[in-house]
Structures are given as structure tokens and as C-alpha cells.
Amino acid sequence: MGVHSAAERVLAGLDPEQRSAVTAPAGPVCILAGAGTGKTRAVTSRIAYRALTGDIAGRHVLAVTFTARAAAEMRSRLTVLGVQGVQARTFHAAALRQVRYFAPRLLAGRAMPELLDSKVRVVTLAAAKVGLRADRAAARDLSAEIEWAKSSLVEPGEYVVAAAKALRETPYEPARVADVFDAYERLKRGNGVIDFEDMLRAAVWGIEEHPDVAEQVRNQYRHFVVDEYQDVNPLQQRLLEAWLGGRDDLTVVGDASQTIYSFTGATSSYLVDFPRLHRGATVVRLVRDYRSTPQVVGLANAVISQARGTEARLRLELHGQRRPGPEPELRIFTDEPAEANAVAARCRALVAGGTPAREIAVLFRTNAQSEAYEKALSEAGVPYVLQGAERFFERPEVRQAMIALRAATRSADAGTPLPAAVVEALTAVGWAPDAPPPGGAARERWEALAALVQLAEEYAAQAEEEPGLTGFTEELARRAAQQHVPTVEGVTLASLHSAKGLEWDAVFLVGLAEGTLPTTYAKTMEQVEEERRLLYVGITRAREWLWLSYATARSPGGRARRPSRFLPQLDRSGGGERAGGGGPARRAERRRPQVVSCRICGATLLAGADRKLGRCPTCPSDIDEELYERLREWRQRVAGAQKVPAYVVFTDATLTALAERKPGRTEELVAIAGIGPRKVGLYGDTVLALVAGATVDEVCPQKTSEN
Predict the structure, then answer these.
(1) What are the UvrD-like helicase C-terminal domain coordinates in residue numbering (predicted)?
(2) Which terminus of the chain has fewer Cβ atoms in its 10 Å neighbourhood, N or C?
């Protein structure tokens, strides 16, 4: 096959936007690629096309991404396309290779220092040196904070100011974290070891401070590709700029709407600012979604269309390319056990119907939510695997807690209610029933133990007589044994963060309640928007079948919760306009109850009166009092003329909604819950005239009520 025909083969089957990305001239290129739009195909085809046309040599290309799996996929695709020699690696793997190669030159003949697999052990020692006793969870949180600082190019002496500026929720007082950070750096140097951030810094230092190293690296790598560019942190960007050395043959690929790792130091600012920082850059938008049905794509668009902030500037509206599929389902349950049992039952039905278990996923916001689904799936006989986390009963804090509970059975007061006895026993492992501590790992530990208290409350509520601690510990042991059954293939249980980059035929998004998604720890607008993007990422994992659910209470009889503010009106989610107009799918969609969002705070509304008003009862009213009085007078005249009670015309709630929302068109009138086609036909023109300023006498003369 000739060079020309090989290059044409690369272009075959690409859509117009992908082709534009592949054939863009050398220089800065920014590919904004929505979920499921074929970004890996586009970027590997661009490398292959340029290599096969003689524009570049494969050995001079460095393609970097964030996971070894993604790098391996790149290499595999390039091999199939007939291109050899391209280096496709993660940032860390590329830096490690260079530092090892140049270590004898940079370190005066010495070998590269040992690389730490984990910071936790050294951080624990560093904390002890400054007078802090850090358990494993606290050490993990301190490690994460140090990693954020180093990835953000923040030194120990700068940490306090930088943490305040970034609104970090620190595991200890910022000054104490800075002390641990400083002690950690000293311990590392004293022991002759480095961490992953040191390795990236060493690669930067080697290039920036050693002209001979810079020349050799830049002669080797002349063309750069960066995948998932929205996840780059300042240290990785510094390394990329060192590699480039002022050159501009750079292709970046990313999606600002999938920015969900800012807590680690990742920032979408480099993607957002790319056209400004690289004058004359080619920008291509990939918006044809080949992964999901139009129904799933429509819901994803509805969720992200409400986004605000910096990332929303690059928001993409996706266009589903697959055949229509089932509408996304929204299900509401009385409590979390009922929700989990319903999910397990549907998973069992899907598997029985021929869907492979590996093509089903249950996604949740926090790892502590997994226990209910592990239990429900086990009892339903559905195998499962946990992605990116330990099984609930294998977590160290849960194992430790079960030991403490068994020990407490020997001394527990027989008259103590079970939940109180469990809380008392858990204090022995450092748990307290007040607000969770700051820090991600410490908070996860707290939530896992809180889940045990919740299990105790559920166990007590279901028992016919007051249960004891012994019976409860036996129940926990039974559950633990049941969930240790090894599985070869199963339904995936995963957090939304660990699900990024993956996809399944059927996806369950569970626990979509206020306080969980968005989490109560999301305080700022930026944090809330990242929670919205998490839901968007979850939705776009589904190829065909999507279930969204929440429970109105955590446990039976528990405190009521509101649904997530991110849930849109599902009548906008079907994609029916694009996928079939008024066909059966669209008619089924119209029969589906709407989920109406508060026009002020965005929360989902369920109560009839709230749905009419279009706002929560606690949100401020913007009622036009004068309009409300005119509407009341008009209603009284019409009701008198028709000899019916006033509420038959319109209820008080409907009048309030009209006076608050002031519809100007029939479409806006129909959007108010409770105003259907019949009432629009009877009163629509009159109501719109009143809203526009007409008097009651103008639309309904007094004699009407006297006839």
C-alpha cells in the first residue's frame, strides 16, 4: 500500500469534525472533545496521518495521558494504523524514563534516588516529629494535601497563604499542615528518597538548568500530544513547557465539562485559555456522540446546560448518533435500603434478559454508599466487582470496628438500645457521632463507621423485639462472609470519580439527593459546579439504559431529604425532537411525570404547590401583589358567572404562580403545573392580557357576574 493510500485509509470513516482535527496544520491545535465523540480515534489518527504523509516521524512524537490504560490504547491503535516509534506514556512514566536516563549526568554519576510508592509512612513520621499523632486516615489526608501543594508548585513556607487562597479544607490547621510538609521534605532528603512530584520536578530541573539535557530531549521529541488536558496540574504544565522549549507543535484534547479532579490540583484553565495563550491555534469541537443513545445524550445536555462558571465557557452540546433507545428512568424510594433492593432486582432482571453483568454499573458519590449495594446484590444473587475501592467489610476501619463491637458484647448493658450501644462501642476506635472531620480520607473513614450506625438503626427497626449487640455483630459477620464470595465477572460498583473514562450498556446513578450530590461539603459555587459535572460524567457513562434514583430518607422513618438540584425536567431528556418527533418514544415521554426544578435555587420540586410556583417554599417570593389581586378579582367574577367555587377556575397556588412567574406567552403559561390545554383554551388569552397589564373590567366586565 502506498503512502498516499495509507493516509487516505486513516481518514476513511471520520466525521467532518474529526477529519478537521486530523488534517489540521502543524502548530497549536485544541480539540474540544465531548464524551463519546471519538477523541482517541481523532488524536491517534492525527498522529498517523501526519506520520504517513511525511509531515513528522513517529519517533519524534511524545503523547502523554493520565492512565497507563489510555496510553496502552493509544499505542495499540497507532500500531493498527501502521505507525511505529511513537512514545505514548503517562506524565509520570515519561518523566521517570527521562530522569533515570539522565541521572548519572545530573547527579554526578550517582544513581537516581529510590522512588516512594506511597507518602503515608513518611508523612506519619513527619507528623510525629512536629507533635501530631496521625492515624492512617489522617496521614492519607496530609499526604493528599502535600501532593496538592507540590503539584501546584507551592513550597512549605507558602502553604498557609496558598491554602487560604484556594479555600482548601485542611485536615489540621494550615500552619500545622505546613509544619508536617516541611518535616516530610526534610525526612525525604535525609533518607535519600523522592516522591512522584519530585520526579516531575527533577525532569523539569534537568531541562531548565542543563542546556545539554534540554537539547537532547528536544531533539528527540518535537511533536506533542496531551490527552485529558482539563486534568493537567501546574507542575505537569511546567514539564510540558520545558519539553516544548518555546515550540508550538502541540495538540491538546479535553472536555471542560469533565473537570472533576480540581481537589488534586488539576485545573481546566490551561484548556480554557489555550486559544488566548497560543495565538492562531486551530480549535476543533467534536460533538457527535457515538457512545450513547439520543435519550441519554439529551439528558446529559440538559444537566450541563445549567452549568455556570469558567468551565461552562467551553460547554459542548452533544448530538447523539446512535439509534433511539429507552428513556432515562427517574425513580424515587422511601429509604436507601429500598433503593438498593430495587437496583439489585433490576440488575438481576437485566442479567436474566441477556445483558452481561460486566456491562452494568452502579455509580455513587462516595465509597461509603457501596455497602447497601454490596448487600442487596449479594442477597439477589448478582455477582459484583468494586472499582477503585475496597469492599466495605474489607476496609481497615470497618474490620477494626467489628473487633470493637465484638469486644463490647462482653460488657454492654442489656438495656441499652442497639444504636446507642454501637455508637458507644465505636468511640473505642475514635469515632464520634458529631460532624465528620475535615480531609477526604478521614471523612470517608467517618462515613464508613456512620454507615455501621445506620445499619444498627435499620436492624433495630426491623426486629420484632429489642435486638442485642451480639445479634447485630453476628449479622455483620454474615454480611461480611456473604460479600467475600470471589467473582470473576460482575456488576461494577464504583464512585463517580473512579468511573471516569469507562462506559457500560446499563448505568444506575443512585443516591441523587441533596447532601449527597451535591455533597454537603461543596460550599462554594465552584465546588457545587464540580458536583454538577460529576453527575454529567456519570450520565455519559451509559451507552443505552440509564436509571437515576434517590431515597427520600436514608433509613426507614428517617429525616426527609430533597432530590438533587441538578435533576432537570426529564421531558427535555428524550432527544425525541432529533430522534423521531411525535413517535411512540415522544408520546411515552409526555406521559412520564415531569421533574420540575426550582427557578431560584435549582432544587427539584415534588410537592404540587411547589411545582405550581416553580420554587421551593423556603426560597424568596417575587410575587407581583397588584397582579395577584387583579387575578383574584377576575377569578371571583368568572366563578360567579359559572356558578362554581373559585378554586375550580384556578387554585390559590396557581394564582400565586401566575403572579410570581408572569408568563408572557402560551408556552410559558402551559409550563406552570396544573394549567393544561383545557384551561388554556378557556382562560389563556384573558390571563395573558391581565399579566400584560389589562384591567379586570377590560377583560371581564362587571355585568358578567350579574347574568
Answers:
(1) 294-544
(2) C
